[in-house]
Design brief:
globular, six-stranded mixed β-sheet, single chain, alpha/beta
Length: 318
């Protein structure tokens, strides 16, 4: 739900925290006029926290920041499978969640959330190298090793460090809309929306030479959503057969080509609903869905709401 209220973000740095995992939410949600967020980086206690990869962090806040925050990020840390975070950290995370804060893990930060019991019975993910260990250590967690992130409502998890960007942009989309998320992605020089799964990053015994070519086709398609984009058209641009394109596309993204195109069209429609006064019929034509009825049908199926209600939500938030 879009919000204009200042959202307070705490980034919890545990011993052995990975630098990139810490930096991603700190930078994405950094306080600026265009972003209604305030960020505090904290630890189990104020002072020096030994990080991973030769870095250390001097944090001004302790666990009191979790009582202040609306969103708590838990970056990945070293050796998460060997021992749980300190009990005080676990209790502070539970208290923050009980108070209504969202908890979001980047990479192996999922182990800290699993230690709270809040992931029991929920889907979750973590870095592909640790998915089996997360499932073994916390058998009640429904570990999904084939996604970049999982949004389970008040508890969110993501895969390796770069997918922390995907998770942060997803949160921005939920809070502020597609336009704000795309603006942040441009600022980060990052893809605004990666629909793929992390299975593509697991080491393979056979080289996959088509990755860049397929990425170029997806980028090409994003600029032509108003045009007819059939499987044959996409395969021709990638210079492979439709059968090869379809099989490899599913392996790379987790979606069929037409599912991916539909979601890209709906995302573009969301942005136009947020930022323009064009009618639903006009937007349907802009994004290649033809009629307003067609747009409404797919909008409801994918997002669970109507284009008009979606637009009113943003009007109310102004």
């Amino acid at each position: 739900m879009p919000t204009s209220r200042l959202q307070r973000v705490a980034v919890l740095v545990l011993e052995g925290a990975k630098p990139l995992d810490v930096g991603i939410p700190a930078q994405v949600f950094a306080t600026r006029r265009s972003m209604p967020y305030e960020v505090r980086v904290c630890g189990a206690a104020p002072g020096l926290v030994t990080g991973g990869d030769g870095l250390a962090y001097h944090v001004a806040d302790g666990l009191d920041a979790l009582a202040w925050a609306d969103i708590v990020f838990v970056p990945g840390y070293r050796f998460p499978d060997r021992e749980d975070p300190p009990q005080a950290v676990v209790e502070a995370l539970i208290a923050a969640h009980d108070r209504g804060a969202r908890l979001a893990a980047i990479s192996t930060g999922a182990f800290a959330l699993a230690a709270t019991g809040l992931l029991d019975g929920r889907r979750a993910t973590t870095h592909w190298h640790y998915t089996r260990e997360l499932a073994r250590k916390h058998p009640l967690v429904q570990v999904d090793e084939n996604v970049l992130f999982v949004d389970a409502g008040s508890v969110l998890t993501s895969a390796g460090a770069a997918s922390g960007i995907d998770l942060c942009l997803h949160i921005l989309r939920s809070d502020l809309g597609v336009a704000a998320s795309n603006h942040a992605a441009r600022r980060l020089v990052a893809a605004p929306y990666r629909s793929g799964g992390q299975a593509q990053y697991v080491p393979r015994s056979v080289p996959e030479p088509l990755g860049e070519r397929f990425a170029a086709t997806r980028e090409w398609a994003l600029h032509r959503l108003g045009d007819p984009l059939s499987l044959e058209v996409l395969a021709e641009h990638a210079a492979v057969s439709p059968r090869t394109f379809s099989r490899r596309f599913v392996e790379d993204t987790g979606y069929t080509p037409m599912q991916w195109v539909m979601r890209a069209r709906i995302d573009r429609a969301r942005e136009l609903l947020e930022r323009s006064e064009r009618s639903v019929e006009q937007i349907a034509g802009d994004v290649g869905l033809g009629t307003g009825a067609n747009l409404r049908m797919h909008f409801q199926r994918i997002l669970g709401t109507t284009p008009s209600e979606y637009r009113r939500t943003f009007t109310r938030g102004e």
